Amino acid sequence: MTEWWKRTRGNQPASEWISFFEDEEYVDSEEFELLEYLIRLTPLTEEVPVPELYNDTRWCNVYEVRHPSISPVGIKRAKYGQLS
């Protein structure tokens, strides 16, 4: 994580959660009041096949993880309201 920050942000001071991640190997989003995930919805422009669901979980296990081109600074929950 630190290398990604340095590579994409140069000499910009790292966010405090990055140091925490390096020490603990996870980020406590509650402690730093960060959004845990962001979902971007876009309208469909074509027909998409519905994936098969597993009977025991009703989960398709089909998803895509994307990494931004530069390391994120972090989005504070207060900017978008508290999650309930």
Q: Care to describe what's here?
A:
The protein has helices spanning 2-9, 16-24, 29-32, 77-80. The model has no long low-confidence stretch (mean pLDDT 82). With 84 residues, the protein is mainly α. It has four helices and no strands. The chain starts with a helix and ends with a helix.
Note the main attributes of this structure.
mainly alpha; elongated; 4 helices; 0% strand; 84 residues
Concise synopsis of the structure shown:
By secondary structure, the protein is an all-alpha fold.
Number of DSSP helical runs: 4
Number of strands: 0
Main pleated sheet: none
- What's the quaternary structure here? single chain
Straight-line distance between termini: 29 Å
Mean pLDDT: 82
Q: What structural class do helix, strand and pairing data support? A: mainly alpha
Helical fraction equals: 25-40%
Beta-strand share of residues: under 5%
Radius of gyration: 17 Å
- Identify the overall geometry: elongated
Low-confidence stretches: none
Order of helices and strands: HHHH
